[in-house]
Write a structure and sequence with these properties.
single chain
């Protein structure tokens, strides 16, 4: 999860930078499921744009693994209920 850490460091060091504000808005949109204008990414320089793409990639993977963990937890609960219920 390097891009997320890199973005955090970049935003911390440059909170007034336009690119940092765009990246922060992207992260907020991803976390809160609110809209984000993709055209805004074109305001970023190449390195910040690449960082935004990497954030999206990592966020997608993280969501996949979070969903997988939730499914596993639910499956364990259902399994425990079915073994403790009388037949």
């Amino acid at each position: 999860m390097n891009a997320i850490k890199e973005a955090r460091r970049f935003i911390e060091k440059n909170p007034d930078d336009a690119s940092a504000r765009i990246l922060a808005r992207l992260v907020l949109a991803l976390e809160t499921d609110h809209g984000f204008e993709l055209v805004t990414l074109y305001d970023l320089d190449y390195d910040a744009f690449q960082l935004a793409i990497d954030i999206l990639r990592e966020w997608r993977l993280d969501r996949y693994y979070a969903g997988k963990a939730k499914l596993f937890d639910l499956s364990v609960q259902v399994s425990e209920l079915s073994t403790s219920a009388p037949a």
